[in-house]
Amino acid sequence: MIPRAALILGLAGLIPFGFGLATILSPALAEATIRAIGPRFAGQYVLIAYGTVILCFMSGVLWGFTAKGAEHNWTGYALSVAPALWAFFFVGGGATQALAALLTGFVVLLVIDQQFSLWGLTPPWWMKLRLLLTAGVALCLAGGIWLG
Fold it and tell me: For residue 103, what is the enclosing H or E element?
């Protein structure tokens, strides 16, 4: 069972992704957002900015898991920095390219999460949470690509 705090905070972390997609679907919401708090919180921009932050954050999470398992240190540490390096090198080149790179990064991150889980470095509920959150992120990023 996923701990309540991890589930609630994980789902709350989907709010900026959902809001970004909502501002793509609703020009009125996008316009109101731009007027109230600025363009960086609307549309594809918020999806790209927040997606990059979260992909890099997940590198830190994986780094912490790696510290638990000396047996897989080199591989674990190398895999843990991969999401941040992916974001640094591949998120750019226009909105569609950036969103596609992020979508790919989050799918690959899920594969890395699974490997860490197989190594016994993650809590037993980790993959349930990661599958749920990755599905939400992927839907929002894909929506940003196709509707943006």
Answer: helix 95-118
